[in-house]
Each structure stands twice: as structure tokens, then as C-alpha cells.
């Protein structure tokens, strides 16, 4: 995997593609249910006033993820 970064390090507005999810159990299942599978395109849209969570556009839906959870999603910038 070349140039793979955690999702929470991607700047607002940049597009990226899911490469791997490093969560386990119910959290992993929930992320997969939200459509976070390999090669899914994600765009960070904006941060909350406190900076956490961040809103992401995932498969046409805006989903807010806390930085701690977003760090377990490895992506590649496109």
C-alpha cells in the first residue's frame, strides 16, 4: 500500500479512497454497514466548532466520525 494515511489526517475537501479498516468487533461491523469497504471514496467536508467530530461525505451521505474512530480507517489520497 503506497501513501496510506489515517482518515483523520486528510485535509478538508480532499478526496480519498478506503484501503483498510483497523477496527474490530461491533465498531468494524458498523463501519462496514455504513459502506466503508475497500475503494469507497470519502471526502472530508467540515469540522465541528470544537474540531471533533469531522463530517465526511460517504456514498452520498454525510456522516460525522470522531477523530479516534477515523484514525482506524486507512485511506489513500486520490
Describe this structure in words.
This protein has two helices and six strands. The model has no long low-confidence stretch (mean pLDDT 93). It has a six-stranded antiparallel sheet. By secondary structure, the protein is of the alpha+beta class.
State the gist of this model.
With 78 residues, the chain is an alpha+beta fold. It has 2 helices and 6 strands; from the N terminus they run E-E-H-E-E-E-H-E.
| Helix/strand class | alpha+beta
Low-pLDDT windows of residues? none
Placed side by side, the strands forming the largest sheet appear as 1-6-2-3-4-5
Average predicted confidence as pLDDT:
93
End-to-end C-alpha gap: 13 Å
Number of strands: 6
Strand content is 35-45%
* Count of DSSP-assigned helices: 2
Oligomer: single chain
Q: Could you say which overall geometry the principal axes of the C-alpha atoms support?
A: globular
**SSE ordering:** EEHEEEHE
- The Rg value, from CA coordinates, equals 11 Å
The largest pleated sheet is described as:
6 strands, antiparallel
- Percent in helix: 10-25%
Amino acid at each position: 500500500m503506497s501513501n496510506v494515511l489515517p482518515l483523520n489526517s486528510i485535509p478538508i475537501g480532499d478526496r480519498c479512497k478506503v484501503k483498510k479498516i483497523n477496527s474490530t468487533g461491533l465498531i468494524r461491523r458498523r463501519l462496514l454497514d455504513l459502506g466503508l469497504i475497500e475503494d469507497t471514496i470519502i471526502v472530508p467536508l467540515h469540522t465541528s466548532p470544537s474540531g471533533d467530530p469531522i463530517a465526511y461525505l460517504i456514498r452520498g451521505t454525510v456522516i460525522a466520525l470522531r477523530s479516534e474512530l477515523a484514525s482506524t480507517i486507512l485511506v489513500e489520497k486520490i
